[in-house]
Write a structure and sequence with these properties.
The complex is a heterodimer of chains A (216) and B (196).
Chain A lengths: L7 E9 L6 H11 L13 E6 L16 E2 L2 E10 L4 H18 L7 H17 L4 E10 L4 E4 L4 H15 L2 E4 L10 H8 L23
Antiparallel strand pairs in A: 1-6, 1-7, 2-4, 3-4, 4-5, 5-6
Helix pairs in contact in A: 2-3
Chain B lengths: L30 H17 L3 E3 L6 E13 L6 E6 L7 H8 L3 E11 L2 E8 L4 E6 L10 H30 L4 H13 L6
Antiparallel strand pairs in B: 1-2, 2-3, 2-4, 4-5, 5-6
Classes of the chains: A alpha+beta (216), B alpha+beta (196).
Chain lengths: 216, 196
Amino acid sequence: MGILQGSLTVRRYRAAGTVPDDFRTSYVDALNDNAFREPRDWTPGVEAIGWCQVHNLLDTDFSDLNKWLYNEYAVLAMRIDKKSLPAKLLKAHLDKKVAEWCQENHRDKCPARVRTDLKEQLEGDMLVRTLPRVAVHEFCWNIVDGTVLFHNTSEKVNDTFRKVFRETFGIALLPWSPLDFLADSPDLAATLEAQGLSDLRPDHAVGAAAPVGGEE
Amino acid sequence: MSDSFEPTDGSSQGSGFGDAASFPDPTPALPHLATEFFAWLWYASERDGGTFVLPGTEGVFLFWVDDRLSFRLPDEDKARAVLTGESAAATLEARAALAGGKVVRDLRLALKREEREYSVTLRGVHLDLQGAKLPAELGAKDETSEVLYERMFLLDELWFMVGALYRRFAAERTSDDWRSAHLAAMRRWAGGLDDA
C-alpha cells in the first residue's frame, strides 16, 4: 500500500518555503547527502533515518531525476531502520558472561563497571547478528502547489518526517487544517472556531446560551 | 514545467534548518470540530438522501456512511464503541451511542461522483485519510507517471468533495438558526424521533 498502489493512508501538509530555481541539481545533492545509510555501529533502540527511492528501498542514489521526479511531483520515501535486542535473551547471555567472569577471577560478585563492559560487548556482538526492523514511508510532493502527502498518520513518524524534510530541503511542513477549506471565507473560519461541542443527547434542551469552545 | 515555484500560501522560511515539528500550525482547528463534522456528515447524508449538489454547474455527488463508525467519550481519544459491517450507521447501537453522549471518533465515508466511487475513513483533527480506496479509472498502466497522475487526480477529486462537505457543514454550523433548527433536528434524529 502506498502512493503508487493500493489504498492510501495520508496526512496532508503545505510546504512553507520557496523552491529554488536550481532545485533539479540542489535537491539531488540534498537527497544524496541525506540518503539512507546503514550505520557502521548500531546502538540498540537508536533509529537510522534517510531517504530512499519508492521503487526499491535499497536504491539511495537520486542522481537520476527520472526515478523520483514526475513533472511537478516528487515521489520519495523515508526509511527508518532500528535494531533492538530481545531483553530476556540479552539478560540470559549476560548472566552467563558474568558467571564466567566470576569463576575466572575467583570472585563472588562482579563489579558494576565490569558488568557494564560485558553488557556493551555482548550488545555489540548480538547487534551484528541481528537484522534491523525496516520501515519505509512514502511521500508525494507537488512542487507547484506546495502540497505534500505523507503516507503515514502516526504522530511520531510524522514529527520525524517533518524534521528530516526540513533538514533536507530547508522547507517547513505545516499540517493541513480543515479550516484551510474555508480559506476564502476567513470570517466563517473564525466564527466556526468559536463554536462549542454540540450535545446531541435528545433530553438536552435547546436554547441555553453556549459557551465559546465549550459544550452546547 | 517552470524552474521556479512559489507555494500557494506565498509564505517562506529562512534558510536555517531546524525542527519542523516545532513550527506552529498557522490555522489550527480545535479538535472538537472534527467530531462535529463527522456527526454532521452522518446526519446530513440521511437528511439529504445522500445527495450533495455542488455550487454552480459542477453537478452532484452522492455520499453515505460506509461500513464503519467509531465513538469515543468527549474527553478521551480511545474508541469506546466501534460498529462495522454493512449499514453500520443504520443500527440502533449507532444512534444510541450519540444519544448517550458519545462523539464520533472516525467514520468511513463512501462518495460517488459520476461513475467514480470512493471510500475513505476520516480521522483526527487534520482529517487524515485512512485506507482511501480510489476507483480504477482507466485500468492497468505500465508507466509510473501515468499511475501517479491518475491517482493524484482521483485523490484531488476526493479531497474536493470532502472540502465541499466541510464548507456546507461550516455554513450550517455557524448559521443563526443552528441551535433552533439544525441542532434540534439532529437531537431528534439521534434520539430516533425523526428519520432526518
